[in-house]
Amino acid sequence: MRIVRVPLGRRSYDIKIASGLISKLGVECARLKLGRRCALITDPHVGRWYAKPAYNSLSRAGFDPALIVVPAGETAKSLKSAQSCYRRLAAHRLERHSFVVALGGGVVGDLAGFVAATYLRGLPLVQVPTTLLAQVDSSVGGKTGVNLPAGKNLVGAFHQPRLVLCDLAVLHTLPLRQLRAGLAEVIKYGIIYDARFFQRLERDLPQILQRRAATLAPVIARCCEIKAAVVSQDETESGLRAILNFGHTIGHGLEAISHYGAYLHGEAIAIGQVAAARLSEQFSSLPAADTARITALLKRAGLPTTVRLTAPARRRLLAAMQLDKKVRNGEIRFVLASRIGKAAWGRPVPAPDLAALLTSHA
Amino acid sequence: MRIVRVPLGRRSYDIKIASGLISKLGVECARLKLGRRCALITDPHVGRWYAKPAYNSLSRAGFDPALIVVPAGETAKSLKSAQSCYRRLAAHRLERHSFVVALGGGVVGDLAGFVAATYLRGLPLVQVPTTLLAQVDSSVGGKTGVNLPAGKNLVGAFHQPRLVLCDLAVLHTLPLRQLRAGLAEVIKYGIIYDARFFQRLERDLPQILQRRAATLAPVIARCCEIKAAVVSQDETESGLRAILNFGHTIGHGLEAISHYGAYLHGEAIAIGQVAAARLSEQFSSLPAADTARITALLKRAGLPTTVRLTAPARRRLLAAMQLDKKVRNGEIRFVLASRIGKAAWGRPVPAPDLAALLTSHA
């Protein structure tokens, strides 16, 4: 088992990475010294395979779990879903020492995390991410949230989990499209932080796509290490942490204007990363060759890298980006790379340049 | 102007107490170095008198406020109201450096505070409490939240304000019933923390009920000092802070079973405090004479001290108390006083004793 520690003082926690962790969920939770009652939140896709083993593992360890199944897909990340979770937590009489287990991908993790952050003003949270994307990104770092019709993740809270369990075995039942989407975030870590890791991905991509545990485990661990390093320096995103959003400003906008339906998050982010790379060429001296490598690797991972937008869609996209959480004084700011392995945040990009990019990017 | 500092490290803030502060709102906010856009959240009752001066003060200081009027009354403290606030914040393009001003009583403060705590994962918040209860209690300390059908404040967040402005002038337009309700919390501070303050209240009650600024200012300041002292020792209520909930377990239960309509919060708390005093006689040696003084002072303040419950209502009350945030392992725990001026938290009261009390208390 690989263990990555996220050092955040009193709120420090471990990310454990191994095959078969779901069946050890109860034992792992028992180490945290929490109350007996808990809620196990999942969706129908994940639940079909893993709700039973997770539930049984909790029961065997002496816990009293309520199983809550929320709808699948990004549209479930709503205040309405949160409200129905709250109702269930109240009915199961969860107390302040009770806890919430999020068993699923990014949507379940963000929603269940938000519910845990806000029920009784905060319950302990255990993340059991079941997609590659959730394992390397959304389950770590404490960001939780739901979407509004106006934009993605506009409502949320910072709420660190007490434990993250990445079960490698679940990746075998992950649909290929989801695996590819997760790779968009994996590749991002190489671009923003670690050129050698990017090289390793260029080399090992075939084995990763074959889901070889021996290749995946160190890749996931490295992503978690990078995220832990960044988050521990800037937990609430007052600066550095924003680099984790490379490609996300445009990506979130794309998700919003397609009503969270057309793209998986990772797919939108892949398109956003190529766009961010082009902006980086223009505004932070990223070599064109690096953009080419980034584009090539994303393509090899089976991800989209361009989008064709009509003029009205382009306007909607620009408007949606205005709602990005990192907009300041109405100016959209970007994470830009100066080379593969190094990124910085805070570059305002003038609206005309952005519009030009979105036109040429079609 | 009296200033009470709430010492919470990087999250420290001032409570300012004086007449006429609403017209200085803009200037006071300008000192906090926040963004230009803000939301001014109020209800129709308060808004009728104070929305315009508050709005104009913000505008004059260069801010761009959106006025959001939420319904009046406890039923407005809902996820539905929060959602409509979020929509307005998105439409007004609030950013992370934008801020929220809560102009109103406890309901507005709790709701606007929760909205500020969760929009974009947290916006700066300025509290402008316009009831006595909000000035001495709910605006200070960072508790925010909304109600669920299952219980009061079941959903919420800890989110400290950046500034609290207590304008004494607004107390002149406060309905008498609201002023009396606020006194329930004022008296509570004497019971749990400061016997001399309790004595002062016994002496000065007539002038307080006449709303004499010279009497009210030091009373409000002392309540804020006590709350600041308690909160700074235990921000997220892992222990000591719970003493602030003297009378609240039964009080919240009464509010819940009457669907937040029959009692003002302070009225329910007054009944709850007398009940807690009787439990304190039984379980923590509170002298019967102290219970008599507590009951007498609450009565002189014009507050209810008893409630007549049918047997089914009693059962509903006991069930509602099971949802209290301080329940642990299904056991209802109480804040009990050992004498006027001293309280401790964590005393589990056996269900039969509680049922007996509620019967005799009728």
Main CATH class of the largest domain in chain A: Mainly Alpha
Count of alpha/pi helices of chain A:
13
Oligomer: homodimer
Shape of chain A: globular
Largest beta-sheet characterization of chain A? 7 strands, mixed
* Average pLDDT of chain A: 94
Spatial sequence of strands, sheet with the most strands of chain A: 1-2-9-6-5-3-4
Helical residue percent band of chain A: 40-55%
What's the structural blueprint in terms of helices and strands?
The structure is a homodimer of 362-residue chains.
Chain A: E1 2-6, E2 13-18, H1 25-30, E3 37-42, H2 44-60, E4 64-69, H3 79-91, E5 99-104, H4 106-118, E6 125-129, H5 132-138, E7 143-148, E8 151-158, E9 163-167, H6 176-193, H7 195-209, H8 213-233, H9 248-257, H10 265-284, H11 288-300, H12 311-321, E10 333-339, E11 342-348, H13 351-360
Parallel strand pairs in A: 2-9, 3-4, 3-5, 5-6, 6-9
Antiparallel strand pairs in A: 1-2, 7-8, 10-11
Helix pairs in contact in A: 3-4, 5-6, 5-8, 6-7, 6-10, 7-8, 9-10, 9-12, 10-11
Keywords:
11 strands; Rossmann fold; homodimer; Dehydroquinate synthase-like, alpha domain; alpha/beta; 7-stranded mixed beta sheet; globular; 13 helices; two-stranded antiparallel ribbon; 362 residues; 48% helix; 2 domains
